[in-house]
Amino acid sequence: MKDKVAERRKEWRLKSLQKISKDIASLIPNKPIIIYDTTIYETIYKKRPYYLSQEFARLGYFIIWLEKESGPEAYERINRDTLSISSLDLLETLDFRGREVYLFANSKTEASTAKRILQKFPGIKFVCEYTDETDDEIRDGGVYEVHEFWEKLPKCTPVALITTTEKLQKKLIERGFKREMLVLSPDAIDADRFDYTSFKKPKMPKDLAPILRKKQPISGYYGMMAPWLDYSLLNRMAENNPDISFVYMGEDYNDALKNLKMLPNVSVLPSKGRRQLLNYTYYFDVAMMPFKRGEVAKSMSPIKLYECMAMGLPVVCMSGLREFDGFDYVLLASDQKDFENNLRMAIIAKKESEVRKRLLAQARENTWNARAKEIIEQCEKPASSLKS
Q1: Whether the model pTM is above 0.85
Q2: Cα(119)–Cα(98) distance, rounded to whole angstroms?
Q3: Residues 242-257 pLDDT 10s
Q4: Contact (CB, 8 A) for 158 and 181
């Protein structure tokens, strides 16, 4: 009896999936398709997968976000060129025969998910993004080393393996991955959203007003208050420079905020959404990227750097951040004293219109559109084996 009930439920679910599948098929135009294994968090909060997929769409691809969530199978049409599907079962009901299809996986993709898709759709082209540094401070249990990922997919023939930093790319080369398969694709920016020339002076935010009334220059940071920040450096900066206001905006991650001394010239504000953020950074005189030296810092994505440059903010950070080197008015400090001196030089530099224009120009050289074109160029090359 139980077997018959289970079989009936299975039949009902299959019919339901097939009906949804027909609805989805009617929405997919005759274009090459990119299936992007991502999460609702990454798309709602507009992380790397969101921006890249939108640029891929502009280049003529139809995007399917595979946002695996618990609950009933469903889909949502995001726009004319983007569709979100909630389950792997639903994806497998689609018919991609005769279509050019790519699967974009990443360091958090489960090998079982990738393997299932590759087996279901023969001929699909496989791309993997290696974007996470597996350090103890940022490991959350879901980050996979790429070499382990590939060991679980021995028959896979990828067309590209993408890294976001030179350090990560070097690690893969050392493990035997072919250089010609690798694409260095750092995070980028939608420069128009942060272009300081496109917005007027905003109304003073209430929680920033008491700080501005001090009439001191503001050295600002936005992002997670995480263990990989150099709190020893930040505390010394505040102690030695009482005439500068140090403003931090972000969530306390892994209880790291307890390491920051709450001195009279130090303020911690809640995390701000992108729309609110510009109302605050408008009043900054310099942006800090106060990352501790170490393995995590060497793999840091420069996306916040590009945002700050687009906002016309000079940036100060410690040396050793490879992805931050080589930019005008991004000042790399060798030690604490150098950091202090750079802060003061940056505060002065921000007052010069030519400095701000140069910062914006550098940001515009690092857009998501440029990154998407580089990735597609690699994907369209003839496939070869990943390792020698």
Answers
A1: no
A2: 16
A3: 999 999 999 999 999 9
A4: yes
